[in-house]
Each structure stands twice: as structure tokens, then as C-alpha cells.
Amino acid sequence: DQSLEKLFIAYKDFAEWENSRIKSGDFREAEDFWTNQFKDDIPTLDLPLNYIRPAIKSYDGNMVYNKINSDLTNKINDICRNLDITPYMLLLSIYYILLSKYSNQEDIVVGSPIVGRNSSDLYKIIGMFVNTLPMRAKIDLNASFKAFVGTIKNLCLENFKYQDYPLDLLINKLQIPRDTS
């Protein structure tokens, strides 16, 4: 007979704790960090499209599947060890460069999902803890790839410190207009 371990907190406890942190001002430092990231302006990614965006968002689309073989995975891990970064940091760096090349922009924000379980007390709890980090990078076209990867590493580490601040609060604070398309 297997029985489940008794949990001392539930998702509703987390939600109450988060709301109390918001009301008490515990997020003040994180709020200052995030609003400072977007104090001057908020860049909008302008990718070339092969069709006109509809006025109302549609979830029509398709999926593309691909696998990374073990040789490529090993090469990625080797590069990461040599640069003292994670595979996430390497692939995010490549993604920023790709977006920059397609858009001809050097100031790009990528929304990156984050797990949101910063305490071991939350590991076994069922519930939605995911948050999105609006990671803003300025791409220096004259920098070497190694230097850019170092910039992204620092960006990630700094942003991760403030990952608990809810994206919805930031959007409301910045008064970002919503676009249904």
C-alpha cells in the first residue's frame, strides 16, 4: 500500500502568500528592477511576415518537429562547459542573434518562461507556478559571439534574481496597451 506524503502547504497557500507579498511591498526591489528595464521605451519586434496579421488573434497554425541528435547535444554541452554557461544561455544567445538578423533590430525583448518554484516546499505541490520573464537584450553587432554570450549570461543571472515578480503586475504598471492581433 503506497500512500502519498502529507503536504504542509497547498497551492492556495502559495497564492495567499504571493498576494500578501504584493500588498506588503515585498516586491518593491523586483518592481524597481523590472520597471527600470523598460523606463525609456518598450521595443516591439518587427519581423517580416508573409501575410497580414489578422485583427483578432487566431490560434490556427502548425507544428514543426525536429530532434537534436546526441552528437550535436554533446557539442552544445562542450561549448557550454568552455564558456561557463548553460545550454539555455547558449541557445538564448543564438535566438537573440537570429531575431536581430531577421528584424534588423538591436534591442529585443524575449519572453522566457520560468518555473516559479523557488522553494523546496513548492516542489510537490500541484498548481501553476510558471511566470514569464521579459528578458531585454541589446545586441552589439561589433561584439564577438563569446562576448555576447557573456552578456546574455549576466542578463539571465540578473533577471533570475527577480523572477518572482508577476508579469501581469509589470504589464499593468507599465500600462502596456493590449493588441488582440
Sheet with the most strands?
2 strands, antiparallel
Count, helices = 6
The arrangement of helices and strands along the chain is HHHHEEHH
Sheet with most strands: strand arrangement:
1-2
Which structural class fits the helix and strand makeup?
A: mainly alpha
Share of residues in strands: 5-15%
Principal-axes geometry comes out as: globular
Helix content: 40-55%
Distance between the termini: 53 Å
> Mean pLDDT across all residues, rounded?
87
Please count the beta strands (DSSP E, at least 2 residues each). Answer: 2
Computed Rg:
20 Å
Poorly predicted runs are none
What does this structure look like?
With 181 residues, this protein is mainly alpha-helical. Helix content is 44%, strand content 9%. It contains 6 helices and 2 strands; from the N terminus they run ααααββαα. The chain has helices at 11-24, 28-37, 70-83, 87-103, 145-161, 167-174; strands spanning 107-114, 131-138. It has a two-stranded antiparallel sheet with strand order 1-2. Helix 4 crosses helix 5 (145-161). The chain starts with 10 loop residues before the first helix and ends in a 7-residue tail after the last helix. The model has no long low-confidence stretch (mean pLDDT 87).
Describe the structure in brief.
This protein has helices at residues 11-24, 28-37, 70-83, 87-103, 145-161, 167-174; strands at residues 107-114, 131-138.
